[in-house]
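for the writeup, i need someone to sanity check this before i put it in the appendix. the sequnce is what the collaborator sent (i think, or maybe the updated version? ugh). structure was predicted straight from it, no edits. if anything looks off just tell me and ill rerun, i have time this weekend
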Amino acid sequence: MVRALASVDLAAIERNVALLAARAPSAQLCAVVKANGYGHGAAEAATAALRGGATWLAVSTAVEAQSLRSEGIAGPILVMGALSDDELEIALAANADVVAWSEYFITKLAALGGGRVHIKLDSGMGRLGTRDHELASRLAAAANEAPQLELVGLMTHFATADEVGDQFFDHQLEAFSEWSDGIVATIPGLIRHAANSAALLRESASHFDLVRPGLACYGLDPFGVDPAARGLEPALRVESYVALVKRCEAGESTGYGRSFIAKQPTMIAAVPVGYADGWKRVFSNNAEVLIGGRRYPVVGNVSMDSMAVDLGADGGGVAVGDRVTLLGADGADRILGEQLARQAETISYEIVTSVSVRVPRQYWRSQDGG
């Protein structure tokens, strides 16, 4: 028995990727496996995504690309993030594609011997990329003309794709389409890509030549509601166990700060998981777990290494050693990442990527349908 375990269903990732690929039949699929595969394990998630039909992989950092190569992952890898000069060398050594939005980067890339590059237009996200359409076009021309470089693609990223009905998404799509249409008219064969998970599921016009789903590959709903309604299967389950059951009399408390004081006698289970494992302090008196298929509330402040669960006056028949499900299914019930995100007033991306490295990952494969 381990104090905490993250169990990852690789077959669920494969099925999710296959479903997403079917939703964008005219495009290649690039599975985003940054941030340790959204907490699921980068190399394992990458392998599963490739089996599910992905033909590209994307990460954020050069070291992430290097790590995938060290695990024997082949095929195109796109490093989407900003790169220092040193990081650029690491990315090129990993035979990864990189992203440019400045003349300096194009010059530096050529000076290092060249590589495969994508030009990023900032169509409205307001982060990486250039807002200057003319500069973006000049960079594409320069990359295409430089003998050391291979211009592979044109890209952008949506700011509000997950906000259904928001018109800024349409503005970004139109801006990118107009700009990239002009480029591919003179430089045919380029790969255009823009769609994240939400855009892929929302609008087929955003698919272009390549789609870049991340969250949905892991079975989470990019719109923050219900993955099952979109045919997605959550791949991650996080569990622990009951380390201690003890009586808590009326007026007694549990946890730092005495944020929970029993109003009547109850039984408390100590669970050896805390915010150092990724179970956030905001879940103090504000979340539930599953034990034996039943829901029980988290009470008191979540600490670094443990938390408490209120079992009720009769203890619910819970005993030391019983499995505690923090995320995922137990019996007929399931705790979703979307539910936890709402309780934490955040997004499910943060829930799954917060599961820390001290929680071991275990990999398995379910049958079709989970």
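The two ends are 24 Å apart (CA to CA). The first strand starts at residue 5 and ends at 9.
thx in advance!!
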